[in-house]
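Backbone-to-sequence.
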C-alpha cells in the first residue's frame, strides 16, 4: 500500500516537473510582452514599456522576470513609474489553456513621479486617441491576442514617490503598496511609508477595502485604519500620533463625496462625525463633528516653547531691516467654498482652564461666514456670541455680539493662572471686533464696547476705607477709625463701560456701592500687559471715629484714590492736598476769622491808652495772637 502511494506521488512530481520543463522549453515569455503592454494600455491608458528579455523563474513559484520597466502618460516629459525590474507570479495550469493568470505583480525599488513633467494626456483630462489603439492591434495579434489576462495582486515595495505641489517637491520614501483583488469588483489596499523633511518625520500605514462594483460612476472605500506618527523639530507636543477610520462614498456625477462614521484620534483626544462634500462646481461642505473631551494643553505648551525659541534666535541675529507691513485678509480662503459647520465638545481643556458645552455653529456663503452661535460654559458662568467673519474685503474683519453671564471671577482668574485678588459675579454685554485670527496678536487687536456689571465684588489684600482713613489721619486725629482692620474691600455692585483698543480695556463711568462706600471713577486695564491704572473718587459714608464737624465734612466729599501697577503688584496713592483744600482749610479759615475778631476788639478797647503804653500793649497783643494761633494749630493736628 505504501509503495502504491509513493509511486503515485512520484508520478505526480514527474508530471509537474515535465510540465514545468515543457513550459520553459516551448513557451517563450517574451510572447507576453506586447500582450501585457496592450492590456495595460486598454485598461489604464498608460503605456507600459518592458526593456530587455523576459525570462522564466521556477522556484519557489512560477514567475516571469523582467528587466527595467517604465509607465508613461502619453505626452509627458518623464515616466510616471520607473523600476529596475518586475516579477509576475503566474499560475501554471491556466497557461496550458492560454490564460495568463497573474497571482502577484511585484515591483521593487520603483520611483513614482507625480510631478508636472509626468503629467500627459490622461492627467490633463484627455482620452487616449484611437490611432494609438489601432497601431497596437497587429502587435497584440502577433504576440498572442488569444490569451486572456487576470491579476490577483499588485505589490510595490521599497519605493519612492516624488510629489510636486506648485514648485514644492515632497519625497515619500519606504513606500509599500499592496492591492489584492478579493473578487471581481472588490480589492483590499494596504499602504505604508514615511516622509522625512526639515528634521521632521511622518510615518503612516493604511488598510482599506474598496468596492468598485459601479466604478467609475460610484465607489465605496471602507477605511479600516489609517495610523500616523508625526514627530520632530517644531511639531506640537513633539509628537502627534493617532488613527483615522471612516467610510467614503464617491459619486462621479454630480461629483460628491460622503464621509460617514468618521473617527479621528489625536494623541489622547478623539473626534467623531461626518462630512458631505459637493465638488461639482464651487465646493460645498456640510460638516458635523463632536468630541467628549479634547485637551489643548500639550499643544499650547509646545507653541509657547516654540515662540521662546524664536525670540532667542531673533535676539542673536544681526540688525533687522524694517519693511512696510501690509495687512491682507487672513480669511480670504472663505471665498473658495461654501459650507455648514457644527462642532460640539463636551469638555475642552487648556492648561488649567476648563470649558464645558463648547459649541460652534456656522455657515459660509460667498466668503462671508455667519457665526450663528458660539456657546461655552466656564467658571460656573455662560458665554454666548454670534456674528460674522468677512473674507471678501481687503482686510480681516470679525464682528461678534457677545453676552457673558455670571462668570465667577475668582475661579476664572485661578484657571488662567493670574493673580487672584478679585472675586465676584461678572456680567457683560456688547460688541467685539478683531482684524486678525493670529492668536499672538488677537488681544492687542480687539476693539469694541462692553457694558460690564460685577455683583458681590471683593478685593483681596486691599481695604479702600482703611487706606483713605489712614491718609486723613495724618491731618486730623479726630477722623481716625477705631473699627477692626480687614484685609479686603467688599462692594455689592460695580458697573462700568469698557472700550477695547490696543490691548487695553478703557473704563469710563465706574460706579460702585457698598454699605460704607460710594465710588466713581475711570481708568484702564491692560489685557495684554496685565496691568491697570484706575482713578477713583471715594466717599466713605460711615466708619469715621467721633462725630465732629470735620468728620461730617469728610463723609460728604469724594476723596481721590489711584490704583496702579501690575496685577500681581498693585500700588495706591491718596492725594493728601485735596483733603487739606476741601476740609481742613475751611476749619482754619473759621479759626482765623475768630482770631481777627478778637484782635479787633482788643485794639478798640485800648485806643485811649495807646499813646502812653504803646510798646507794652503791642507786645501783649502779639503774645495773645501767638497763643491763639498755636492753639488753633494744635486743634488742626
Amino acid at each position: 500500500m505504501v509503495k502504491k502511494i509513493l509511486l503515485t506521488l512520484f508520478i505526480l512530481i514527474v508530471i509537474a516537473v515535465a510540465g514545468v520543463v515543457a513550459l520553459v522549453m516551448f513557451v517563450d515569455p517574451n510572447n507576453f510582452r506586447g500582450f501585457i503592454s496592450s492590456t495595460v494600455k486598454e485598461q489604464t491608458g498608460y503605456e507600459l514599456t518592458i526593456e530587455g528579455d523576459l525570462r522564466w523563474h521556477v522556484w519557489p513559484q512560477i514567475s516571469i522576470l523582467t528587466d527595467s520597466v517604465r509607465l508613461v502618460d502619453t505626452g509627458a516629459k518623464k515616466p510616471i513609474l520607473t523600476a529596475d525590474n518586475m516579477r509576475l507570479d503566474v499560475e501554471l495550469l491556466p497557461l496550458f489553456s492560454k490564460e495568463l493568470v497573474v497571482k502577484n505583480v511585484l515591483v521593487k525599488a520603483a520611483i513614482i513621479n507625480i510631478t508636472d513633467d509626468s503629467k500627459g494626456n490622461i492627467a490633463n483630462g484627455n482620452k487616449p486617441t484611437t490611432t494609438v489603439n489601432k497601431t497596437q492591434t497587429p502587435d497584440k495579434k502577433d504576440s498572442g491576442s488569444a490569451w486572456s489576462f487576470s491579476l490577483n495582486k499588485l505589490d510595490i515595495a521599497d519605493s519612492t514617490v516624488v510629489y510636486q505641489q506648485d514648485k514644492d517637491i515632497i519625497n515619500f520614501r519606504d513606500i509599500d503598496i499592496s492591492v489584492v483583488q478579493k473578487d471581481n469588483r472588490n480589492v483590499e489596499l494596504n499602504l505604508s511609508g514615511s516622509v522625512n523633511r526639515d528634521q521632521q518625520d511622518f510615518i503612516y500605514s493604511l488598510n482599506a477595502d474598496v468596492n468598485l462594483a459601479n466604478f467609475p460612476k460610484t465607489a465605496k472605500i471602507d477605511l479600516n485604519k489609517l495610523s500616523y506618527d508625526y514627530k520632530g523639530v517644531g511639531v506640537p507636543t513633539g509628537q502627534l500620533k493617532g488613527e483615522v477610520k471612516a467610510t467614503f462614498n464617491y459619486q462621479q456625477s454630480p461629483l460628491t463625496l460622503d464621509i460617514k462614521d468618521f473617527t479621528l484620534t489625536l494623541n489622547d483626544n478623539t473626534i467623531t462625525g461626518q462630512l458631505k462634500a459637493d465638488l461639482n462646481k464651487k465646493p460645498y461642505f456640510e460638516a458635523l463633528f463632536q468630541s467628549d473631551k479634547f485637551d489643548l494643553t500639550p499643544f499650547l505648551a509646545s507653541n509657547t516653547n516654540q515662540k521662546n525659541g524664536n525670540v532667542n534666535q531673533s535676539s542673536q541675529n544681526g540688525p533687522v531691516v524694517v519693511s512696510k507691513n501690509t495687512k491682507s485678509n487672513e480669511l480670504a480662503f472663505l471665498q473658495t467654498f461654501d459650507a455648514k459647520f457644527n462642532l460640539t465638545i463636551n469638555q475642552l481643556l487648556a492648561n488649567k482652564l476648563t470649558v464645558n458645552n463648547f459649541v460652534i455653529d456656522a455657515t459660509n456663503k460667498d466668503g462671508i461666514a455667519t457665526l450663528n452661535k458660539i456657546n461655552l460654559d466656564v467658571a460656573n458662568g455662560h458665554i454666548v456670541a454670534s456674528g460674522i467673519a468677512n473674507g471678501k474685503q481687503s482686510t480681516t474683519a470679525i464682528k461678534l455680539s457677545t453676552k457673558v453671564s455670571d462668570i465667577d471671577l475668582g475661579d476664572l482668574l485661578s484657571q488662567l493662572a493670574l493673580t487672584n485678588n478679585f472675586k465676584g459675579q461678572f456680567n457683560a454685554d456688547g460688541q467685539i471686533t478683531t482684524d486678525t485670527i493670529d492668536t499672538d496678536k488677537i488681544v492687542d487687536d480687539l476693539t469694541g464696547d462692553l457694558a460690564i456689571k460685577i455683583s458681590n465684588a471683593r478685593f483681596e489684600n486691599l481695604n479702600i476705607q482703611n487706606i483713605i482713613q489712614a491718609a486723613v489721619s495724618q491731618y486730623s486725629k479726630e477722623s481716625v477709625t477705631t473699627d477692626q482692620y480687614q484685609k479686603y474691600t467688599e462692594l455689592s455692585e460695580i458697573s462700568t463701560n469698557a472700550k477695547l483698543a490696543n490691548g487695553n480695556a478703557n473704563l469710563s463711568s465706574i460706579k460702585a456701592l457698598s454699605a460704607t462706600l460710594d465710588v466713581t471713577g475711570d481708568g484702564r486695564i491692560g489685557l495684554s500687559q496685565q496691568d491697570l491704572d484706575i482713578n477713583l473718587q471715594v466717599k466713605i459714608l460711615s466708619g469715621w471715629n467721633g462725630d465732629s464737624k470735620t468728620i461730617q465734612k469728610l463723609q460728604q466729599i469724594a476723596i481721590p484714590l489711584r490704583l496702579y501697577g501690575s496685577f500681581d503688584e498693585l500700588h495706591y496713592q491718596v492725594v493728601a492736598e485735596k483733603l487739606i483744600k476741601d476740609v481742613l482749610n475751611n476749619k482754619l479759615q473759621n479759626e482765623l476769622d475768630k482770631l481777627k475778631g478778637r484782635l479787633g476788639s482788643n485794639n478798640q478797647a485800648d485806643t485811649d491808652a495807646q499813646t502812653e503804653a504803646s510798646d507794652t500793649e503791642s507786645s501783649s497783643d502779639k503774645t495773645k495772637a501767638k497763643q491763639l494761633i498755636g492753639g488753633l494749630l494744635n486743634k488742626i493736628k
